[in-house]
Write a structure and sequence with these properties.
This protein is an all-beta fold and 344 residues long. It is built from no helices and 27 strands. The chain folds into three domains: 145 residues, no CATH class; 88 residues, Immunoglobulin-like; 94 residues, Immunoglobulins (Immunoglobulin-like). Helix content is 0%, strand content 53%. The strands form seven sheets. Strands 12, 14, 15, 17, 18 and 19 form a six-stranded mixed sheet that branches. It is rod-shaped, with a radius of gyration of 37 Å. 28% of the residues are buried.
Length: 344
């Protein structure tokens, strides 16, 4: 059980939480502006959020997500809501007219609605859905009802992590979302190769998104907008990642022997399937050698394969052109009957 203490002081008030035995602080914080502030009543909701009411004469009283963020004069009543840790002011609002208000008592219901009562002598005290909308003179009692709902926290913990590289092209996007009121959350997902990214999906309940199979060696940008069930939203930062290179093919070596052989390496991160290759050998005495060999090959990531012309007859200088995918490489050599030599 948490013990809450709210104490009135001349310039501001403070809120302190003690542990169950009263032997240490859980938190203790000032609340107020530069003039007279008092705390008169305090309650906890089911999530241990701290609701406080009282009066303030401070024009700079801290206001967050308030329906009235302007000091009205004299003394204003206020209602505020602190996080259970005391570190975050979730909601705070002025409540009053141009003269004097004093809120003296507060209660909350199971839905987190706050009810305050006190007195006012303002002829322009804010009235809504009132059984008595008219000021009656001198001091009037007031009763007011509030519903405070804090915006969701920004999404965090992106996966893939922001600025990641070599991300698999079949990756799933994941993140964490939370809300200070434990509201039900939904998400809009923005995803693409542009900044800002376009919207891909709206109002999904899961904190995971499947963008489908992505392109190799491409930078993608994504952003999550979090909504709670009271229509409050917060947009997260734009994250980005770059996908894996995919298959990266190069002609590693052209060598001789009983024919011309070409070593093709895949230094990328994905297997290459159905890769077209070609070896063209021309030359010899009187240009009699003109041999073109084509084929396709599969090369796993990080491995190499050798393709060749097979043995052929001839004599004299050779020009060898090897092609694989978008790469082309040439070499000079000599053919001696059935044996091919390649200059290094």
């Amino acid at each position: 059980m948490l013990t809450m203490i709210a104490i009135m002081v001349i310039m501001m008030f403070f809120v302190t939480t003690l542990n169950q035995n009263g032997t240490s602080f859980v938190f203790s914080t000032y609340v107020g502006g530069t003039s007279h502030d008092t705390g008169r009543s305090l309650k906890l909701d089911g999530n241990n959020h701290v609701y406080i009411t009282g009066r303030t004469g401070s024009q700079d009283f801290p206001i967050v997500n308030g329906y009235d963020d302007t000091y009205n004069g004299g003394y204003d009543a206020y209602v505020m809501k602190l996080s259970s840790t005391g570190k975050i002011l979730l909601n705070s609002t002025f409540h009053g007219g141009t003269t004097y208000e004093w809120a003296s008592s507060l209660d909350i219901d199971n839905a987190g609605r706050a009810y305050i009562t006190g007195w006012t002598d303002s002829t322009n005290f804010p009235i809504s859905n009132a059984y008595d909308p008219s000021y009656n003179g001198f001091y009037d009692v007031f009763v007011s009802k509030f519903f405070f709902d804090a915006s969701p926290y920004p999404p965090k913990d992106p996966n893939p992590p922001d600025t990641s590289i070599l991300v698999p092209i079949n990756t799933l996007l994941k993140w964490n979302g939370s809300d200070p009121d434990n509201d039900t959350l939904s998400y809009d997902v923005y995803f693409g190769t542009l900044i800002p990214p376009p919207k891909s999906v709206s109002n999904q309940s899961e904190s995971i998104f499947n963008p489908g199979i992505l392109q190799y060696n491409t930078t993608y940008y994504w952003q999550i907008v979090v909504w709670d069930n009271h229509n409050l939203q917060v947009a997260g930062p734009i994250w980005h990642f770059t996908t894996e290179q995919g298959a990266l093919l190069n002609i590693e070596e052209i060598k001789g022997g009983l024919g011309i052989n070409v070593v093709i390496a895949n230094t990328g991160t994905a297997s290459a399937s159905g890769v077209d290759w070609q070896i063209h050998v021309e030359g010899g005495l009187l240009g009699k050698i003109n041999k073109i060999i084509n084929g396709t090959i599969n090369i796993p990531a990080g491995e190499s394969r050798t393709v060749g012309t097979g043995m052929f007859f001839g004599f004299g200088p050779l020009t060898i052109t090897a092609k694989v995918a978008d790469e082309e490489k040439t070499a000079e050599g000599t053919q001696i009957i059935i044996f091919s030599m390649v200059k290094k």
